[in-house]
Amino acid sequence: MRVVLQRVSSARVRIDGETVGSVGNGMLLLVGFTQGEDEADLEWMADKVVGLRIFNDEEGKMNLSLHDVSGEVLVVSQFTLYGDTRKGRRPSFVKAASPETAVPLYERFVALLEERAPGTVATGEFGAMMDVELVNDGPVTLVLERGAS
Fold it and tell me: Does 50 reside within a domain?
């Protein structure tokens, strides 16, 4: 499981020009899955995301978590996080989980975040062509990984 986490002051995802998910202060998570991942991987990642101290305190130091700032989360599926570009010029996506595997993992991950996050958890639509807009606060961008790689 790979997550590209971006600290945002706002983010939204649109499908065919219509906003389907949006958040204010919080995080945008681009999430990809591979074969062999399980509930433990999803729980670890949900706990990691919610517990990361990436928001600034009154001294400007990254000491605050999502809970401390009542932050929101926008989760967007992104199978291309498992794109392999080592050979040739066209990425290979053989390590990305199939939709039959990835959809239940994605839905469970979102549910775990809904249980743990203090604010809104919004999503895009799995497998849809989406436009993602964000204001990256900082900028702060982290790559998190867990599970079968």
Answer: yes
**pLDDT of 82-102, one tens digit each?**
999 999 999 999 999 999 999
* Dist CA 10 CA 43 (whole Å): 25
Q: Is 80 a catalytic residue?
A: yes
**CB-based contact 67:118 (threshold 8 Å):** yes
In a domain, 149, yes or no: no
Is 123 a member of any domain?
yes
Residue 79 catalytic? yes
Domain count, the chain: 1
Residue 141 falls in the annotated catalytic set = no
Residue 145, strand partner residues: 2
> Of 10, 139, 19, nearest to 72 (Cα)?
10
User: Which domain does 35 fall in, by range?
Assistant: 2-144
In a domain, 46, yes or no: yes
Closest CA to 133 of 21, 15, 17, 12: 12
pLDDT, tens digit, 9 for 90 and up, residues 114-134: 999 999 999 999 999 999 999
